[in-house]
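User: I'm putting together a teaching handout on how sequence relates to shape, and I'd like one worked example. Could you take Stage 0 sporulation protein A homolog from Clostridium beijerinckii, show the sequence you're using, and then write out its predicted structure as tokens right after it?

Assistant: Happy to. First the sequence, then the structure tokens directly below it.
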Amino acid sequence: MNKKIKILVIEDDSDINNMICNILKNNEYEAESAFSGSEALMCVERENWDTILLDLMIPGVSGEEVIFKIREITKTPIIVVSAKTDKKTKLELLENGADDFISKPFDPDELIARVKSNLRRYLDFSISNETKDNFLNYKDISLNIESKEVMVGEKIIVLTAREFAILELLLTNPKKVYSKSNIFESVWGEEFVCDDNAVNVHMSRLRNKLAISGNKNYIETIWGMGYRLEK
């Protein structure tokens, strides 16, 4: 692992807390202890955690309330480790924000297996969302903000930096009409002085390149107002 996985262990029994931390550290995770609900919430507000292990019977803020408050802050997986084993309790915890449940006494191998399983889902979800955030899509146009690549259907089209910036601007808010001054000041980073030739030329080239698929109607002109993506 390039990045050490950080796990918060919320358990008021110091012997059990130390045992869990040692199990985690022996499996190359970083582990930190919290012994009450209020201390746990301070830790969550202060740092980012990859997984949280939580006992329900803790002093101060209850374990159930801790789950609720953590969910207001982060989507980090919460694995409840508790002697409360009745089905009703488990279902309520899962409905209220917990991701998994381990009954006490627990097997160390099961603990690590559950940690790995929840970590894998959480990290895969995070990476998927980060990847999704890199793309802007409209009809069959796909723009990758990070790699600066644009595809129409299955075809990659090559844009200049300013053509790319214009398309990115339009894709960011497909329903908005952008005036020539909006586009010029956003893309060129200079004050618009009524010379719209630069915008017209770049818009024409962009339209021609997008028309590679045979659809010439990606960008429409709203006369007297500006441009937007065609509905």
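A couple of points you could highlight for students: The mean pLDDT is 87. The chain has two domains: 6-132, 135-229.
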